[in-house]
Amino acid sequence: MTQKRWAKNFIRIEPYRAGEQPASDDVIKLNANENPYPPAPGVEAALRAVKTEGLRRYPQADGTDLRRALAAQHGLDPACVFVANGSDEVLALAFRSFFNSKKPVLFPDVTYSFYPVWCELFGIPYRRTALDGDFRIRPQDYAAENGGAVLANPNAPTGIALRPAEIERILSSNPASVVIVDEAYVDFGAASSVKLISKYENLLVTQSFSKGRALAGLRLGMAFGCAELIAVLGAVKNAFNSYPVDSVAAAAGIASLADGAYFARRAAQVIATRERTAAALHDMGFSMTDSAANFLFVTRAGLDAAALLAHLKGRGILVRHFSQPGIDAYLRITVGTDDEMRALLKAVSDFLREKEIR
Fold it and tell me: Above 80 in pLDDT, residue 21?
């Protein structure tokens, strides 16, 4: 087949690849870090109250009502809040908005694998910074000259969180560049950096409704920062898509924010199940990072992680394996319900016994 001449103008890029999304619901899905519990009851009420006649109109261009609800929750001016279709869209817009230097953007060598994809897509130079031997971020490594920095906190797929003092050390050493703190998993035990935005104008904090608030199917994300950063984000968004958050998703998000007690109770359940599962896996000889997220990052001496992945899939249990050197002996396991985690532990125990791994 002859090469189509117009194909020379195509962009060539390796895309981000999400975890497997099975067609059947007849699986225990522990591979995408979704919340195992439903969203707050008020969300269903809000969705039922949506008048379909109103869907003929465009939604609020800047998500005014949702931004106000988020601002009230965090004690901020709405001018310091931005919303979009999931935190991935927020992050993509932030990369395009703030990383326009010829200097490299810094992020860990083991972290959310979408960061290098955005850099490649937007032509942003970047440098991966090595974690220490315990998979921890070293704040001093981010004092090097750069065009910005991105830190997932807690980090993914390790689940390890930075302390507020460590975040501040990174911020104070980068007064000439924007530091993005990606808090997709902050609801499960890490300290948020939102309270630092009044002190550091170079800080942008991104969060998601997908994890802690169980709204992954609606795609809602937000960012918090000084009004100047948020204004730039808004300008870039409006140069691309001036109506990013639909009215149905916004109504669900506002309803979710209104039920703080439900949110806190469900987060506590996930944390408690995480700790029980970690203890049970430890008793089976596994070691793992100190997770402050809704997943565990586990390994075991003498165990083939890919083989365990296949065994679990054969039992109808999906977890995540990364082939990246340095972490290819690990599995990332989302925290599900107690029943789901008991099924996981039984399948792992059977695998160890079948393979005679002691």
Answer: no
